[in-house]
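Reading a protein record of the kind used here takes only a little practice. An example makes this concrete, so a full record is given next.
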Amino acid sequence: GLNLGATAASFVPLILWMSELWGCGVAVAAAALMAATPVLFELGGYGHPEGPAFLFLNLALYLFLRGRRPGTRHAGLLTVSAAVAAFTAAVLRADVIFAFPLLPFLAPLVAGPGRRRRGAALGAAVALVAMLGFFAAQAHIVAMMPPRIPVPGGEASGPAGLTSIVVSYWGVAKEVRTF
């Protein structure tokens, strides 16, 4: 129920952020195409955190891009809210981090002349804050694990610093050739 509802609700911010870039017609067509993807609602129908993560990712993209539009009021609040939404998406489903490069790459399209570099830099900052927050949360959780759970470095439980968590994620990503 909750997961399927979150997956369905994720189309609202999806259409909103795509409308910021390409207009309502393209956004609705792209969302309809995505809705027709069989895997999307298959994941949304199970007890899988993909639906809520997709919702928060789209919310982060919308809030951030809306804040970059020239003349937007409360751009700072929208930027901070986007970082919180991106962090929440990553906590729900870690692979959402691979979508974070969208923030600095899409921001210049909305920012307008003379504000494109700043938009890209803010997008990179939001992505970095959300990722570091996620890794810090992971380090905290791993440190609380019972001794039978291995942590980076081959030891069983105990303190795991932010650096060791980032290094372990990097090692796995290199192994499967993600980067």
Remarks:
- The chain has nine helices and no strands.
